[in-house]
Amino acid sequence: MNWRLWFPIAAFTGFLAVAAYSLSQPKDDFVRSAMIGEKLPYFELPSAVEGRPSVTSANFADGRPRLLNIWASWCLPCIAEAPQLAELERRGADIVGIAIRDKPEDIAAFLDEHGNPYSSIGRDDVSEVQLGIGSSGVPETFVIDGDGVITYQHIGDVRAPDVPVLLEELRKAGA
Amino acid sequence: MRGIALLTLLVAAPVAAQDAMPPAPYAYRQLDDPAQEAVAQDLMETLRCLKCQSQSIADSDAPMAGDMRHQVRIRIAAGEKPEAVRGWLMDRYGNYVSYSPALNTSTWPLFAIPGALALLAGALLFRRFRRQR
After folding, report:
1. pTM of the model
2. What pLDDT, in 10s, does the model give residues B1-14?
3. Where are the alpha helices (DSSP H) in chain A?
4. Taking CA atoms, which of A25, B21, B65, B87 is between 20 and 30 Å from A124?
5. What is the ipTM metric for this complex?
């Protein structure tokens, strides 16, 4: 047999090995934001709750680091993370909420039932801010430093082990 | 059997309910200018839906895809170039959001390998035919 025939066979075996290895690796469906380290884009959102301040990008550049929680009353994992957000607020985090594609009455009902850890909540009816900061779903939680720069993104609901991580990220952002 | 079918139906309930809001103004409405709409449509077919990652935003009925179409259409209507709109999304979501791969340090094999294989095939054929004569 011609020794050169081994080259294509080796190449094909290598291809199979790479494919088998890739199939065995867990799939990562998260689309991470490419905006970490970037300033929040300019936005002004109407307030989602009667009597609470509206949410603008300028609110974030006042020297105090904050959590920016992207959520919605129609989102089930958002119910699961409510106790952790309450815990974060209890431990001194300032949490700004942005409700995605949500009705004021649904927002009010959600907050009545699951508590309100937010210092202010804005309504993003066409996902404009969500797209602007590179968020690809609800819920997501961003850390914004005192200059309005995004420093950290947490994708999915905040679970108990994530609370100290977010507090540490807030501390790193200057809290 | 019927029990299993019912059980399957129960388990198949959507993980996260969709919102009750009307779609964004330009999610399903075409632009008035047909030329601009054609440009927007071409672009939307090459942008990935982030919720349903194997579909383009032109194909998807996910509310977020509707909101992305709204952004694409209002930006095209405002006179932005399609590549600028694509760049705006890639600045936010990385190269993954675009179905039209750009030539860069991680994608060059995509473009180089077919050329190399064609050259190799050409060389092999050339040698084979020359030997036969």
Report:
1. 0.84
2. 556 655 554 444 44
3. 6-24, 76-90, 104-114, 128-132, 162-172
4. B87
5. 0.86
